[in-house]
Amino acid sequence: MNDPCDYKVGDWHKKLGYFKECPVCKTTFWGRKNQKYCDPKCKGKVAIEKLAAKNKKYGKNIQQYMKNAEILESLYPGLNELKPVPKALLYGKGFNDSGIQKKVKYKRFEGEWNLIGEYAYKLDESKQNIFIIKSKDNGKL
Length: 141
Ligand SMILES: [Zn+2]
Fold this sequence. Notes:
The protein is of the alpha+beta class. It has 2 domains: 4-38, no CATH class; 65-139, no CATH class. It has 2 helices and 8 strands, in the order E-E-E-H-E-H-E-E-E-E. The strands form 2 sheets. The chain has a 5-stranded antiparallel beta sheet with strand order 4-8-7-6-5. The chain has a 3-stranded antiparallel beta sheet with strand order 1-2-3, with no helix packed on it. The structure holds zinc ion.
C-alpha cells in the first residue's frame, strides 16, 4: 500500500498519520489521531452551529422571561393593594411559569415569591389567584 489512494478511513500510515474523513465537508485527509476536521474552517463551522443552537434555546427563554415580566407589569394592581389576580387571567395572556424566575423572600410579605424582572408573584391559598408585588415595594407597605 504505497499509494495514498489505496487507503480507507481509519487506516494509519507511519509518515502521514491517520486517514480520516471530515464530518463537515466529507473531504478525506491525513491527520493526527485526535484531529477531527480537515481544516480550521470546518472546525469553526461546527463551533458556530453549536453557538447558534445555544442562542436559539436561550433566546426563547429570554423572550418568555420578558413576556412574563410584561404580563406581571400589566396586571400589577399597584402599591398598597395586595389583591388577588385570577391565575387564569395571567395564563390567558401567555404567561409561562416554567421560564427563568428566582425564588425570593421578603420581610414584609409572607412566603416565597417568584421574582421576574422587577415584579414578584405567588399563588394565594386557593391556588386560583396570584398576588403581584413590585420588588421595590417591599420596604413601603
Ligand atoms: Zn472539512
